[in-house]
Amino acid sequence: MAWIRKTRLPAQSDLPFANGLWRYLAIALLLSGYSTVPATAQEEIEPEPATKAGLAEKSLLLDASAANGSLVVVGERGHILTSTDKGSSWQQTDVPTRASLTAVYFHDSNQGWVVGHDSVILRTTDGGTTWEIVNWAPEDENPLLDVWFSDADNGFAVGAYGSFYRTADSGKTWSFEPISEWDFHLHHVARSAEGRLYMAAEAGMIYRSDDGGETWVELPSPYEGSFFGTLPLDGDTVLVFGLQGHLFRSDDAGENWAPIEIGTTAMLTDGIRLADGRIFITGLGGTLLISSDGGSTFELLPQDDRRGIASIVEAEDGQLLMVGEFGVKMMPAASLAN
Q1: What Rg, from alpha-carbon coordinates, does the chain have?
Q2: Are strands 217-218 and 227-232 parallel, antiparallel or unpaired?
Q3: Which has the closest alpha carbon to 287: 237, 238, 244?
């Protein structure tokens, strides 16, 4: 394979960055520009495979995916765990890297991709049973923070210092194609039902694409701190959230924003809308927000253990799958009511 290599430059941003649980940690150097180098130039340093751990499901986990009955979670030390029995039991898979893994995306029950530190990108075609490395550049010290696919072939991987990788061959190869002159960290990509793409980033940056990710525009921002996620709702309504409990709503595709008071200053990490219409947003310190009015207002339902929640997805049979400082947790959505 051909690794994508980037060149280090002095950092241009000295904005504060969040500490603690979340996947936007340990980013040290600005990387810009790119060139492809033969695999032989990288073969002197081979990735070390992840070590099997008896308590892997209790380790720090950072993202989760639910696709056609199959559950996959990823996290520190290269841990990838799968479940085929609705989360009753978990199996740690063989993974060819021990880098911290920050995000996972499955197109269907077979094809999936994972990204993480060391600019690593992993690919599976058998539902997560086996994984191959398709990109790895540890010398860059550059984490990738999210991965998203529009179909089985076309996708993006985004991360620190403006990193934006694109693939058109199901993730077999990737090209580095920055979308902005800024070097801010790109954190999260989400798609609306109408096909618009939104991306949350550092320093209050919010981007939108109306053409499937071919081009991106910078949206007006209501806040100068980092955003870690977006949640498109119906029509042109979208939520954006991040540091210090900042949560904003736009009803015109991000052209104007209004703050939503939520009663906490905890960092907000992820959000979903369930099939029944309820909206959940998670955060550090056991923060769990719930809305039953389309995201106009939220009630704070802090979890008793106060441990940070990194990601939340809706699984089958009304179950919520959450991962974070506690590892992996299944919870009936019906048990959470506002």
Answers
A1: 19
A2: unpaired
A3: 244
> What confidence score (pLDDT) does residue 70 get?
86
191 contact partners, CB below 8 Å, separation of at least 6: 148, 150, 197, 198, 232
pLDDT tens, residue by residue, 230-289: 999 999 999 999 999 999 999 999 999 999 999 999 999 999 999 999 999 999 999 999
Whether 4 and 151 map to the same domain: the answer is yes
| Non-local CB neighbours of 141 within 8 Å, separated by 6+ positions | 27, 28, 29, 31, 118
CB 95 within 8 A of CB 50: yes
Query: By C-alpha distance, which of 209, 169, 217, 173 is closest to 192?
Result: 209
Domain that holds residue 317: 260-338
The answer to whether position 219 is within a domain reads no
The model carries a pTM of: 0.87
Which residues make beta-bridge pairs with 145? none
Percent of the chain with pLDDT over 90: 78
Among 183, 210, 245, residue at a domain's last position: 183
Closest CA to 184 of 197, 199, 201, 198: 201
Same domain, 6 and 133: yes
Specify which residues 176 forms β-bridges with: 165
Query: Within 10 Å of residue 204's Cβ, how many Cβ atoms?
Result: 21
Phi, psi of 166 (to 5 degrees): -130, 145
